[in-house]
Amino acid sequence: MTRPDRSRIRGALIDVPVSAVLTQQIAFATLDGPGPEWTGPAVVAWLVAVALGLPLPARRRWPLPVFAFVATVAAAATATGVTAFGVIFLTWIPVALALYSAAAASGRTGAVLTLAGALAAPAVTIPGLYLRTGVTPASAPGSEAPLWWQVETGVVVVMLSVAWATGRLIRWRRVLAADTARRLARDAVADERLRIARELHDIVGHSLSLIAVKATVANHIAEERPAETRAALLTIERTSRSALTEIRRLLDILREDDDPAAELAPAPGVGDLPELVERLRPAGPGIDLDLSGAGDLPPAVGLTVYRIVQESLTNVIKHADASRCRVQVRAADGMVHIEVTDDGRGGRQSSRRPGGGQGLIGMRERVTMYGGSLTADTRPEGGFRVVAAIPYTAEEPA
After folding, report:
1. pLDDT (average), residues 369-378
2. Residue 292 pairs with which residues in a beta bridge?
């Protein structure tokens, strides 16, 4: 089930009291405004006020329909005189709020059309109302506000234009932030693939070097063996050396010149997890490590398990504010399961981690490489949990 957008919920909670206040002010101003009052039934003024204010909490979810509805109601109310002379802008404040949301949610063409419609409606209805009713400053000398249609129209037009421009600015900032997030995600994937390529280079290079040495030795001691055996060993030697040369030639391109230490360091694996836990334990929560059947994993899979646990523990220390953390690694029947749980601030973590943190992107990239799965989410009882499952093929004993 998709979680509700928290920012949208917070916005709706803000819109509810704003909607109530606007509904009240529009109705009161229409019935007892600074200029000529509405002489029709009071229920009509209240119905118009409710129709303008009530849809506002839904503008974040359905911006265009809400804008179209409140703009139509405001235009009809202004054209028929169900509005407050002198403060007609009150009737159009809900339109400005809805226009802001519509401009922030629409593309360029849609935004231009909404602006044109929003400006055309008051530009036609406000002068039309004044001309039809004949209201002027002279006809209402006791008015508390200037009764000029030019002023009323200008105030509404400026208010709507500012709301639209603000919405477009917010949309531009959101698009820019989304582009930046996508670029960071792509960079994170590329960096993790580069790191994987380096580590696989070391693992495959070591394995092929061993094959080449063994094949060479076997080739020299096989004088008494049949010719077929000698030919097979010679093929193994040539093939392994050729493959090793090509792999180093291709993958060395991915290495950075300023990272010589990584090339010399042996690739870590599941056997290095106790040392990792002991190294991290003083810097964070108490860490419980449970390893079962993971001692004979292939080197590349063991390295992936190590990196997932390492990244998960780093996130716990940096973000979780946890007191306890448990790491379980269990391998059986061609599948290794990794689970890292903590009792920290799961709610606050979840708002950041599943959204595409670079550490999580890297973990997903590693697991996907083996056709596995990875989930990261809050626990019902509190805290955070990272669970990964990676299939592997057990190595044959030498």
Report:
1. 87
2. 330
Residue 355 pLDDT:
40
pLDDT band at 346 (very low <50, low <70, confident <90, very high): low
- CA 398/CA 395 separation, integer angstroms: 9
Which residues, in sequence order, are bridge partners of residue 288?
326
370 touches 304 (CB < 8 A): yes
Task: Look at phi and psi of residue 371 and say left if phi exceeds 0, alpha if psi is from -120 to 50, else beta.
Answer: left
Residues 326, 312: Cα–Cα separation, whole Å: 11
The helix (run of H) or strand (run of E) holding residue 274 is: helix 273-280
| DSSP β-bridge partners for residue 210 | none
Which structure tokens are listed for 283? 């810097």
Q: In what order do the strands lie in the sheet with 335-342?
A: 286-292, 324-332, 335-342, 384-391, 373-378
Structure tokens at 137: 């400053």
The pTM assigned to this predicted structure is 0.56
Q: What is the enclosing helix (H) or strand (E) of 284? A: none
Cα dihedral: 101, 105, 110, 111 (round 10): 50
For residue 78, the model assigns a pLDDT of: 93
H/E stretch holding 383: none
pLDDT tens, position by position, 192-248: 777 767 766 666 666 666 667 667 766 766 666 666 666 666 666 666 665 665 566
Query: Given this model, what pLDDT does residue 186 score?
Result: 79
Q: How far is Cα 305 from Cα 309, in angstroms, rounded to an integer?
A: 6
Residue 21 DSSP one-character state: H
Strands 335-342, 384-391: parallel, antiparallel or unpaired by DSSP?
antiparallel
Reply yes or no on whether the pLDDT at 267 is more than 50. yes
**If 0-12 CB within 10 Å is exposed, 13-18 middle and 19+ buried, where does residue 384 land?**
buried
Radius of gyration of the chain (CA): 35
User: Which residues partner with 325 through β-bridges?
Assistant: 287, 342
DSSP string spanning 152-216?
A: HHHHHHHHHHHHHHHHHHHHHHHHHHHHHHHHHHHHHHHHHHHHHHHHHHHHHHHHHHHHHHHHH
- Between CA 164 and CA 130 the distance in angstroms is 26
265 three-state secondary structure: coil
CA atoms within 13 Å, Cβ hemisphere of 198:
19
Q: How far apart are CA 18 and CA 159, in angstroms?
A: 17
Residue labelled with tokens 């449970």: 290
